[in-house]
Amino acid sequence: METKFQPLKENSTNQPTESKSDIKPLAKWSLDNFEIGRPLGKGKFGNVYLAREIKSKYIVALKVLFKSQLQKCQMEHQLRREIEIQSHLRHPNVLQMHGYFFDETRIYLILEFAGNGEMYKFLKRQPNGRFSEPKTANYMAQLADALMYCHARKVIHRDIKPENLLLGIHGEIKIADFGWSVHAPSSRRKTMCGTLDYLAPEMVEGRDHDERVDLWTLGILCYEFLVGSPPFEEEKQDLTYRRICKVDLKFPAFLSIGSKDLITKLLKPRAEDRIPLKKLLEHSWVVQHLSSEVRSRLPFFQTATSNNE
Ligand code: AMP
Description:
Elements: E1 34-42, E2 46-53, E3 59-66, H1 67-72, H2 76-86, E4 97-102, E5 106-112, H3 119-125, H4 133-152, E6 155-156, E7 165-167, E8 173-175, E9 182-183, H5 201-204, H6 213-227, H7 237-246, H8 257-266, H9 277-282, H10 284-289, H11 292-296, H12 299-308
Helix pairs in contact: 4-6, 6-8
The structure holds adenosine monophosphate.
């Protein structure tokens, strides 16, 4: 499909300086509104391209999904929910969905462009495949703020893992892929595909669950960022399953007391015992490492602290 379109110019990854405003939502988008640039990546149901909205010159990521593949895997319902949820969320650490359109064979999602790509690859490129404690604490604060925002709107993500996180132009986290998200509370007994590693005990056991499953996954992610692999990883899924249910947690010696304390407080088998997101933002290990720049970009944190004054 690339041959049909003009390539973007070299400097086109910068948003136009004269227009700081958002891409304007159009009632009816079509492919004619965009110039298509280089491919950004390949997903299960199609490809993602860098693109520019011609009128505003706004740079976006255009995700092209093939209807036939979605139908084959019975994913249309899930995609509809993903669009409905993600297009209504506005937070600096949630990847924005600007809109969508479709033609006979494809569905196009107009997404915010995440200039620094995939968190998963960035983590793998680090020395020993893990982040420092200050970097991890700053990521945790961004995720906690974004999830507070989602949970306040009764949206549970349920699938927070490095593969579903992108990085913005300032290195900030962008939660993407709301394909498994639901409006809380949920008693949906869905078989989640892929790895068990991030699933909370109530989900692996197929019990009812609420937004506190995202607290568990934050604990798993915090461990993975600091150690390089998730805490219950095993070759055989039944072993992972047993370790999750027992919360069989082992920490390497290099972790600080503060980081272990936070992970332990998130990885509680009973959802009601998990540390709430607001308390996570006040946890001494997070506060100790939180940079003023990241702090200034946390909308929920800003509101909470200004209300306390
Ligand atoms: P997905 O189909 O969502 O798994 O996307 C496939 C790949 O495209 C990802 O692994 C990313 O490398 C890239 N990608 C997807 N969405 C974006 C985006 N909004 N900004 C930049 N790259 C993206």
